[in-house]
Please model this.
Amino acid sequence: MTNFLTNDTKAIILLCGILGKDRAAEPLTQSEYNTLARWLVREQLRPEALLSMDKLDDAAVGAGINRERLGKLLCRGVQLGFAIEEWQRSGLWVISRSDPEYPARYKAHLKDKAPALLFGAGDKSLLQGGGLAMVGSRNVDFEGEEFTRQVAETCARNRMLVVSGGARGVDQISMRTALEAGGRTIGVLAENLLKASIERHARHAIAEGQLLLISPYHPQARFTVGTAMGRNKLIYAMADYGLVVSADYKKGGTWAGAEEELKRDKPLAVFVRTHGQVPTGNRKLLDLGALEWPATMQQDDLPQKLAVLANQRPEPQATVREAETLSLFDHQPQQATEVREDEPKIKVPSSAPSAQVEPDLPVSVYAAVLPVILRHLQEPITVDDLAAQLDVTKSQLNLWLKTAVEDGAVKKHSKPVRYSAKRGK
Model:
């Protein structure tokens, strides 16, 4: 297996990864790495710049992370070499948020909560995702099992991916049924990716291009409630729609994952089984915005039926954060997999074909951020101050300001150079 690692990814693994038994320094948490990534963007640097150690002092100050800790993490080159060799020998690969193969759905849907690293076994092309995320109780009843099999078979018939978590119960039933019916599946695992990838049925499905296993955790990580809860959001974010087969009311990971998804600013369409004998949690999810799974459905119209039902949902109200704050991944179309999180120079298209733009986003990045910029230009302000307020690079901001001046929305002052919103705009 070939698994070429970019220098960016090597740097991110050193910073965030667990490498053997070495505990000389605690790897960065996702929040800490996000802070460091923002500093890199502001400085127009990529993660690989940290490998030379020349920027270590500046990075420590800019990200508010102990310099000695950063240095120890970045000096784990020998451990990294051994780890990469072991992963490759086991048929595993690893990618980072800076890699073009990284799931664009994660960046678009999860923003800063998209994991910095992703381990996997199987065809990376499946990382484009889509299809139906099927989740439910480990102790699902017979009626729930039959429902799960029926839906998974229908997905396979309609060439829809089945995305699940690989756990006992609904997860395993949905994935195995889809595979046996000739479909394709993605398993987002909370524990021991290595062990799962070498099981006999998994090896065959991976070799046939039917199965992709991924995990944000070390390939030999043990199960914890925390890892299970952390991967729930990744299951939903990988799919077009969610389906809760069985959920205990306010108990367990299935309920927590569905509740978390439904409370997002822009949640996925989450369906729930409501026919027959179902747990109380299933019906309570309807109060949070879940949709009833259709009682009847033709075998060949599942994608069309779900799309129609999902489009009938009321539009979510924008929150203050969504309206006024830009993160690393805001306004990034899902299809733009070539855009990487730490890219210092981003080409801003004036427009994009309507078929490739999310229906609830402006037709261009410039159109999306202009209202935010104008709110900060009520009084003349320098590029440096504005870039700091918006948490973007000066080079990126200058592109937007130049376009805004040409459009007549912004006025450029001289001596010193400052910008302000034109009155009436």
Notes: Residues 319-326, 330-339, 343-364 have pLDDT under 50 and may be disordered.
